[in-house]
Amino acid sequence: MAKLTVDEIQAVAKLARIQLQDNELASVSEEVSSILDFVMAINEVDTARVVPTSQVTGITNVWREDEVHKCKIAPKDLLSEAPDFQDGCIKVKKVL
Amino acid sequence: MSKYKPTIGIEIHAQLTTKSKMFCGCDNNSRKAQPNVNICPVCIALPGTLPVANKGAIEMAIKLAHGLNAKVATNTSFDRKNYFYPDSPKGYQITQMDQPIIQKGHVEILVADQFISIGIHHAHLEEDAGKLIHPEGTDYSLVDFNRAGTPLVEIVSEPDIKSTEQAKRYLQEVYNIVTSLGVCDGDMQHGNFKFDLNVSVSNSAELGTRTELKNLNSFRNAERALSYEINRQIEVLEGGGTIEQETRGWNDTKAVTFSQRSKEQANDYRYFPEPDIPPMVLSRELVSSVQSEIKILPINVRKELHLLKLSVSEQDILISQPKTAEIFMSAQARLKSPELVKQAVNWLVGDYQAILVKTKKPVLTGGNLAELITLIEDGTISSKIAKDIFAEVVAGLKPTDIVSSKGLKQLSDNSELELIIKKIILDNPKPAEAYRAGNERVLGFFVGQAMQATNGQANPTKVSSLMVKLLKE
Ligand SMILES: [Zn+2]
Q1: Chain B residues with CB inside 8 Å of A14's CB?
Q2: Do B232 and B110 lie in a common domain?
Q3: Among B60, B143, B151, B206, fewest CB within 10 Å belongs to which?
């Protein structure tokens, strides 16, 4: 049985940019632990002789020639979902 | 002398000179562009888009492998490095973690007249992030995605570097390699070649705790930051303290390193294989056809020049100009003795540099330079004539053609020279008398007169000896 500590849950929440209230921590850690348990059923399969797989199509070498193709969509349309602009740049909360 | 010895490892980021970005067809050159114009659904990460790797970037990495004396991986693939930051539209960077394209290699550097080898752990392809601007005195940052998706190669050294001097030479040598291969334009001011330095000190066989100096973009600052950081670590240890593993920045104005981020806050990047880009299998045919385009490598030039006992700074002049280095290598292969090869160097670091400043498209070939040197050597032309026609040789004319079309052949026919010299002596009875009376300094005057009379086509040594003989008659 997997048991994630509150610290671990907080670390994962931070990496995923999810804000958890203090009173949620205990229940979320229970829930995530039980989900992990469910997924961990796959550990029962013997994979000792299986090569790790991340691709199943068998396709290789999908690449393109080094040519410039200007995008047909105007930049202002591409960025229309951005909340705010200044001097052609997207304006965000200060980082640094 | 301190008993503490530094150990240094370096990560270099070099921007590739491809026309388009790493995974989309957007223009890779935004030097003069307005913000956010060279963007498309792929590089700003709109949902449902598919990155497709740039073959030009892959070929550049294959070339670089040769420069780093490294093998190209037969099987290579991309991974995702996850982090949230406004400069990363996708929330991850496509990079290479498991199967980097360039495997183990080494770079030879010349320090204190000795060639030493610095190991390359690996090098990999990845994409750059967008540019962040932090206007002073405001509560916001500005994001420009023109640079997002620009192809980079990251070159990771082994911790083989043992001094600040070695670190600087290593950086310069890798710089020479990427620029001479043409895979990076080497514009350090714009951050197109920048590096992170990992440094620790220790007074035992065990390695000390390291700190990372991030984002340096000049050789001089690398040297200063390293010296400072090595001394700082030694002082901390000698004062009984411990070194914290952390990232430090370099403050150029104050000339100090400062703590930026400690290891405890370090990110967990949750790497996993990039599902949107199928793996690559690089055939031996592809690798050899790409690498066969490489004409010369800086190390070969350096070794030739080192044999000639030229100083490192003289070597650097030639090596830092890949085209000039190419001319040198082709000329030296045609010249018979080290003395003549040295003359080729003299031409290239002397007269040629002066012409380069004024000429936009020099077309000097190694063959023509070697021919010019041979014409002087076999006495066909004087070195003065050679200097006079050098600009035309640089413009692409063949030295033998210039000499024959202009009738510049050196006067080596003694009887003809003798007539000219006799006339000069007759025309200048007073200096001739003075010479015979023992004033040998007037010989220079006579030789000058003879050179003038022959339009510089006489061999000065021959003139001088004939002159002495005839003056004494
Ligand atoms: Zn794009």
Answers
A1: none
A2: yes
A3: B206
In the prediction, which pLDDT does A11 show?
86
- B20 and B36 in a common domain: yes
**Tens digits of residue pLDDT in B276-300:** 999 999 999 999 999 999 988 999 9
Does residue B290 belong to any structural domain of this protein? no
Measure the CA angle with vertex B173, ends B6 and B31; round to 5°: 110
For residue B11, the CA-to-ligand 1 centroid distance in Å is 26
Whether residue B289 lies inside any domain: the answer is no
Model confidence pLDDT, tens digit, residues B228-245: 999 999 999 999 999 999
User: How many structural domains comprise chain B?
Assistant: 3
Q: Give the nearest partner residue to A63 out of B40, B58, B84, using CB atoms.
A: B58
CB pairs under 8 A between A and B: 126
User: Searching chain B, which residue's CA lies closest to the CA of residue A70?
Assistant: B26
Q: To the nearest whole angstrom, how far is the Cα of B141 from the nearest Cα of chain A? A: 5
> What is the average per-residue pLDDT within B61-72?
98
Q: How far is the CA of B106 from the centre of ligand 1 (A)?
A: 34
CA distance B325 to B346: 13
Domain of residue B393 covers 295-406
pTM above 0.95, yes or no: no
Are A90 and B34 a contacting pair at CB < 8 A?
Answer: no
State which residue of chain A sits closest to B267, comparing Cα positions: A15
Lookup: tokens for B242: 């411990």
pLDDT of residue B410: 67
For residue B80, which phi and psi values (nearest 5 degrees)?
A: -105, 135
| Secondary structure element (H or E) that encloses residue B199, with its range | strand B193-202
pLDDT of B2 > 90? The answer is no
Q: Which residue of A has its CA nearest to B75?
A: A60
Cβ of A63 and B278 within 8 Å? no
Give this complex's ipTM: 0.86
Buried b / exposed e over B327-350, threshold 16 CB at 10 Å, is: bbbbbbebbeeeebbbbbbebbbe
- Asked if residue B236 and residue B371 are part of one domain, the reply reads no
How far does residue B230's CA lie from ligand 1's centre (Å)?
A: 42
How confident is the model over A49-63, as pLDDT tens digits?
988 888 888 999 999
B41:A15 CB<8 A: no
